[in-house]
Automatic annotation (TrEMBL):
Ribonucleoprotein in keyword set: no
Family annotation (SUPFAM superfamilies): AhpD-like
Name this polypeptide is given: AhpD family alkylhydroperoxidase
Methyltransferase listed as a keyword: no
UniProt keyword list: Oxidoreductase, Peroxidase
Gene3D superfamilies per UniProt: AhpD-like
GO molecular function: peroxidase activity
Species name: Nocardioides kongjuensis
Length: 178
């Protein structure tokens, strides 16, 4: 998926909010510096394209599961569907180890996301070695930034009481599963 396609997907999903539309923006507008910083980082992540988009999407969905952010799970499932990630891969995030629905790369990035989203965040040397053997330094940095930012999003959303917006209403969503 190209960078422009990914931006378009995000805009389409954001426009599909059915409720609680703009809750986060309404909070962040009170601190314009944070609104600009948040928007800049989100844009930076969208403009990076070394790591395949579906791997980043699965990793951020797993991170949202680990930290239990309902808004993140709601929008993450909608983004995954819109990006073409099959529902069976989202279901596989519930029990990813050895799950045949996930290929080796997907299992690797999901394990990484789970490790750095746990408290405390610990990436075992064996996992880091496997990641470094499979992905370039740029790809791994991009993945780490994406998952770390998902953790930031989740913590901010939870702290501010940001609720699901109905992005996944009527479709499979990890909220009800977690």
């Amino acid at each position: 998926m190209s960078i422009l396609q990914r931006i378009w997907v995000h805009l389409r999903v954001l426009a599909s909010a059915k409720r609680n539309r703009g809750d986060l923006a309404a909070r962040l507008v009170r601190r314009p510096q944070l609104l600009v910083a948040q928007g800049t980082y989100e844009t930076s992540l969208l403009l990076m394209g070394r790591m395949p988009a579906h791997l980043k999407t699965l990793a951020t969905a797993k991170a949202a599961m680990v930290v239990s952010c309902e808004f993140c799970l709601d929008i993450g499932a909608a983004l995954a569907r819109t990006e073409g990630v099959p529902e069976e891969k989202l279901v596989a995030l519930l029990e990813p180890d050895g799950n045949p629905a996930l290929d080796a790369d997907e299992q690797l990035v999901v394990a990484f996301a789970a490790a750095i989203s746990a408290s405390p965040a610990v990436v075992p040397d064996e996992l880091r070695s496997r990641l470094e053997a499979r992905f370039t330094g740029a790809q791994l940095t991009e993945l780490a930034a994406e998952v770390a930012w998902e953790n930031q999003r989740a913590r901010l959303n939870q702290a501010l009481g940001i609720r699901p917006a109905g992005f996944s209403d009527g479709a499979f969503c990890l909220i009800a599963q977690g």
